[in-house]
Design brief:
Largest sheet: 5 strands, parallel
Strand order of the largest sheet: 2-1-3-4-5
Number of helices: 15
Strand content: 5-15%
Distance between the termini: 47 Å
Number of strands: 10
Length: about 350
């Protein structure tokens, strides 16, 4: 069955107060991972897809809130799966079985679904919750791993999660059962995501503070510097007269523009060093226009901010900024690598 071989006191030290020093070797660890893989494969090979499809379809067509409940480790899994559904824009919540019996069951309504996770299906707290939930006319689904359990017999639907055994050498600690619960719930969540045709933009809208959301929501116009923050100059300006502008705006460059703010080119602090090294004192007679880069990379204000970062890092050599121009090549802003990183991208 792919279970672990019996352990002796010499190779597995399970007693924290043992006088000998605890240790574990690479082979033992590898064997544990292989055993867990075998137990998970048993689950995949024996899962009843017809039950799983009925479960998924019920959640998909639910017009109310999908509640999840469980006790102990199964409760943590139930809570996590509920939060996954919430992040996908699906109305869901975790219902503590203890709190439910002390008033929280008032949240249940007739069009709601209540999913009860329990390895044994004989969890006392969940069995006490069932008649109360039925009185609220919610649809009850049990997700269990022991055949012929009490919970399955009193719910409207049951999904059996095949469990070969726990990875624990005593077959007691719920480490494999909770793993298959998590895999089952998260896979169903992604099935619901696909069935509801959730777009990247919709997903990002539910994660505005995280890097995922920012990379899908933030546009260049949201993170660029503009107006008085821009380090601008004219091509006829003397280089040495523009040092304050070059260094004070924190962009490491000058945006060279004409009288109508069309972009002519860029002049960086790197260009300043190279010009000083090559020209020496002659730099005092040089204009910005004579030494600027007249073919800089640019980007539009409606481009995604993450695309701006990729453009900065593109070959042949990375840059630290991009001028932001409109369709007429008029400068309206500048986006810097530092600004993108500061925004969490």
């Amino acid at each position: 069955m792919g279970s672990l071989p019996p352990s002796s006191s010499s190779d597995l030290h399970l007693h924290p107060h043992s006088s000998s020093k605890s240790a574990i070797d690479e082979t033992t660890l590898l064997n544990l991972f292989k055993s867990q893989q075998s137990h998970l494969n048993f689950f995949f090979q024996h899962l009843d897809l017809s039950q799983t499809l009925a479960f998924t379809t019920t959640l998909l067509h639910s017009s109310g809130t999908i509640f999840f409940s469980g006790v102990g480790k199964s409760g943590f899994v139930a809570n996590k799966i509920s939060q996954t559904l919430v992040s996908l824009g699906i109305r869901s919540s975790f219902l503590s079985p203890l709190d439910a019996l002390h008033g929280d069951i008032g949240i249940l309504a007739a069009d709601d679904v209540l999913v009860l996770f329990s390895k044994s299906g004989n969890t006392e707290e969940l069995l006490r919750l069932v008649p109360c939930a039925k009185a609220k006319r919610a649809f009850l689904i049990s997700v269990t791993s022991v055949a012929g359990n009490a919970l399955a017999s009193v719910c409207d639907m049951n999904v059996h999660l095949p469990l070969e055994r726990e990875l624990c050498p005593f077959d007691l600690a719920p480490v494999t059962s909770t793993a298959i619960q998590m895999v089952f719930g998260d896979t169903v969540a992604i099935a619901l995501m696909g069935a509801r045709n959730l777009t990247k933009e919709q997903y990002a809208a539910n994660h505005p503070a995280g890097r995922i959301g920012k990379s899908l929501i933030f546009k260049v116009r949201d993170v660029m510097k503009k107006e008085e923050e821009l380090p601008v100059c004219k091509e006829g300006d003397m280089i040495m007269e523009q040092l304050v502008e070059l260094t004070s705006k924190g962009c490491g460059c000058l945006l060279v523009i004409d009288d109508d703010r069309h972009l002519i080119g860029t002049f960086t602090d790197g260009d300043l060093r190279r010009t000083l090294k090559a020209s020496g004192e002659a730099i005092f007679k040089l204009t910005v226009g004579e030494m600027c880069n007249r073919n800089p990379r640019t980007i539009g204000p409606d481009a995604m901010a993450v695309d701006a970062m990729q453009k900065m890092e593109a070959p042949p050599s990375p840059v630290q900024f991009l001028p932001v121009v409109d369709e007429q090549n008029v400068v309206i802003g500048i986006v810097t690598l530092h600004g993108l990183v500061s925004a969490g991208l």
